[in-house]
Amino acid sequence: MRLLTALFAVAIATPCVFAQTPAQTPATPTATPVTVSPDTRAAVSKLIGDVLVNGKAYDYDRHLADDIGPRLTGSDNYVHAVAWAQDQFKSLGLKNIHTESFNMPNLWEPETPAVGNIVEPRNQPLHIFSAGWSPSTPAEGVTGKVVYISQVLPIEKLQAAKDKITGNIVLFDSASFGEHPAIGDELKALVLLNSFGPKAVLTTGSANGTENAGSVSFNGDLAQFPAAQIGLEDELLIKRLLDEGPVTVHFSFKNRIRPATEVQNVIAEIPGREDPNSIVIVGAHLDSWHPATGAQDNGTGVATVLEVARAVQALGRPPRRTMRFILFGGEEQGLVGSNSYSKKHASDMASIDAVLISDTGAQPAKGWYLMGRDDEKQALTNIEPLLAGLGSNSTNPDTEFLFETDHAGFDVAGVPTLVLWNGIDKYFKLHHQASDSFDSVVQADLTQGVATTAATAYAIADSAQPFAPHDTPAEVEDMLKKANEYDNYKALKTAGFVP
């Protein structure tokens, strides 16, 4: 999650840059409540009981995080995770297990630790890390004067700073962008910054000198200049020193960069017993950042997908529709794997009844984000009682994650989507950081979220009628405008960020 903040790494690193979008005024619901037959209710009760008593999600996550480790897209660990996930699906007896490739323009991994220091007006070591998908510095490193850009937006402010930026090391922080910057404006700023030719870019990480992984590029493209992240305390010191006079810094790092490569999504199915050509997708992203092991982002989501597959298969009663389980890659670089899948399967969108995504960690689930689809609240009416005992029978109309995880490519195609709604206050204290390790995962909380996902997905897949209507392009546009996201959508579409 929070992938759009990666456009300027954690220069805009408050975890609520796009959070807490005010709830939109609901449109008149047009969806018919999903039918929950007595047989469906009985099956869901068995599913929930099996997940709570026999569930393996905690074990799946432990193996993924501890035994495989961090899974940068296309890395050796990622390839290992792809093979492991296929083996898990095979051991469960699922069908149509396969991979589908997508192209990453570059693969990236740190090769040497970053080192750096202030050299003027005095020597001071920096807590410094290479930004993701940054090129290596020259062997001798980068040395230059630091220019702090206090205001980037509106774009005219950045334009006015051109002469200061060219040939210097540019420092951004959250204050540079203001509160709730529009995604489209950030994209324009990035394009403009590239044209100005900075020597390098520094962004600001977390307190206590810790890394908060991100990038200053997206879609797997390399940044056009070395980009590094410094600790919050380092940034505050540099700003105070700039108040007194010039500041010069030096830093260096070497990254392992590989050219365009095909990377794999992992797919498996439980065929529907009556309508196998209608699909309910349960998905999550397999890739992670590297400071820790990605246990919460998104090991918990992967574990959820595998455990829902295990529990439904063990039930012995396939739902009416096919359940398709997908582990996407490249999410952290801009939803690359899921957008590729959406584009490749554009002609199949009408057959996808719903998409359910897990990507908000493993705090207790409250229910589901509706992702701009107010009619889905009505569709869930008969499913919510099934979730009441889990405490997850609520919905959230906020659109804070509208373009921030793997539902987006389906959402803009008009497919009904749901994203698991968890508490996220603890999640964002470890998100993309060294603290995102398995010891942060609470087994009972993870299991409750898995049970929520299994019950919801199965009830949708087993209903006599479709979950919710597919929106027309005009209805998608109307939804985006109501969410105040249409201009951002156009900018992201132009940049290839969404289909």
Could you please describe the fold and organization of this structure?
Helix 1 (38-54) packs across helix 9, helix 3 (76-92) packs parallel to helix 9 and helix 9 packs across helix 15 (443-462). The protein is globular. The relative contact order is 0.19. It has helices spanning 38-54, 57-68, 76-92, 155-160, 162-165, 174-177, 183-196, 232-242, 295-315, 336-344, 375-379, 384-387, 408-411, 427-430, 443-462, 473-482, 486-494; strands at 7-10, 95-104, 107-110, 115-120, 124-125, 128-130, 142-148, 169-171, 200-204, 227-230, 248-252, 255-258, 261-270, 275-285, 321-328, 352-357, 365-369, 394-396, 417-422. It starts with 6 loop residues before the first strand and ends in a 5-residue tail after the last helix. The protein has 2 domains: 31-105 and 260-494, Aminopeptidase, CATH 3.40.630; 110-256, Glucose Oxidase, domain 1. It is α/β, with parallel strands linked by helices.
Q: How much helix is in the residues?
A: 25-40%
Mean pLDDT: 92
CATH architecture of the largest domain: 3-Layer(aba) Sandwich
Radius of gyration: 23 Å
Instruction: Name the CATH superfamily classification of the largest domain.
Output: Zn peptidases
CATH class division of the largest domain: Alpha Beta
Strand percentage lies at: 15-25%
Distance between the termini: 18 Å
For this structure, the CATH topology of the largest domain is Aminopeptidase
Q: State the major sheet.
A: 8 strands, mixed
